[in-house]
Amino acid sequence: MANSSDWFDKLTKKLASEPRCTDEEQEAFEAERKVMEGTQWEWAQMQTNGDISVRTTQHAKGGQHGIGDFVVSPDDAGYEEAKQYYGLSKPGDTYHLQQKWIDGKWVTELEERPEQRPADGKAKSA
Questions:
Q1: What is the CA radius of gyration of the chain?
Q2: Phi then psi for 18, rounded to 5 degrees?
């Protein structure tokens, strides 16, 4: 087995040989990251087996990024409350929440539950 410094040296050389972003690409990346700061999304969907899959994605100030996932199963305590909270009643139903961090609190920009979704499928603003 190669020692860890050989592995690290190989990795360092490989990374050093990779192409770098142009100044314009780096500026575009930084601008996009800046726009994302202070945003949060939550998504919940009822799966075919009745499980409710939930994902939260957050972009904090300073570029930190976090993702959290959990599943609420039909036999879990709180399942009925989760169904009601997210407005899910059948497989495929989906809930969306988009928030922005403004003046020290999360402000809802968009919240969409299945029963609120118009026939054309376009989201309604909260």
A1: 21
A2: -70, 150
